Amino acid sequence: MFVPCERGGGGGCDFTGFALLMPAVSVGNVGQLAIDLVISTLRMTKVGYFYTDCLVPMVGNNPYATSNENSMELSINAEVYSLPSKKLVVLQIRSPFIKNKYRPFCQTLLSWVESCKCARVILLSSSHAYQRDDEQLLGTPLRYLLTPALEKAVEGRMQELNWKEMEKVAAYPGINDTEKVLHIPGGGITKLLFTESCSKGIQMAVLLKFCSEGDNIPDAFALVNYLNEWLQLIKSRVNTSSQWKIPSSWRLLFGNGLPPALF
Q1: Pairwise CA distance, residues 29 & 163, whole Å
Q2: Of 23, 49, 85, 157, which has the fewest beta carbons less than 10 angstroms from its beta carbon?
Q3: 226 burial class (0-12, 13-18, 19+ CB within 10 angstroms)?
Q4: What is the CATH number of the domain that holds 124?
Q5: Is residue 254 assigned to a domain?
Q6: pLDDT averaged per 10 residues, the chain (length 263)
Q7: Verdict on whether the full-model pTM lies above 0.85
């Protein structure tokens, strides 16, 4: 359930014609890190919270603090940010799901999407690199998926970008290689949310990257640059990491850097 905050200027949950950008809680937290870069770089305004019992409760300081004055503002596990000039609304998720709560969350989220009249949903996700099949090992580690409701509108654009669609894999490898299924190991809610959107006729795109656990900041930059190729959230002739503003919460994300004297 969406709860607007007073500082966001009200506006309820009417995001008519907006694109909803959100992460899956998946391997390496790549989607969440990429969302951090979008919110920080575009200086998006927090307009509310997504109240749900499907996520582990958490509270912390403002992850996008720019001064001592706003550094003590509190953030919780699911918050909503908006940028009307780009018709963009972002749901950031900061904690893992409670066991057996994937489906209730997806149902609540998609009901909210429909009630808010969002034009489309874009889900940023990731999948275990070590579980790729032979075909998925070829070329770029970035993939996309489109629901039938969105496919007609943007499939041509994906072909112009020379993007690779997420391949289906054999349901029973070595036994029956003709039956293919969508398999996104480590993708969290990605597959469920995508299939539910397909059945409900919701326009959804999934952008994901094959990766492994570790320092996943480079993966986040790769994924957000991939997103920017399509949406052009920031204008740049060449996608580079330097064009994105790193949020203050990343300062000690993977520990302190090595002392300069060692180089």
Answers
A1: 22
A2: 85
A3: buried
A4: 3.40.50.10900
A5: no
A6: 70 80 96 96 93 93 86 90 94 94 94 93 97 88 96 92 92 75 94 96 97 94 96 78 87 64 48
A7: yes
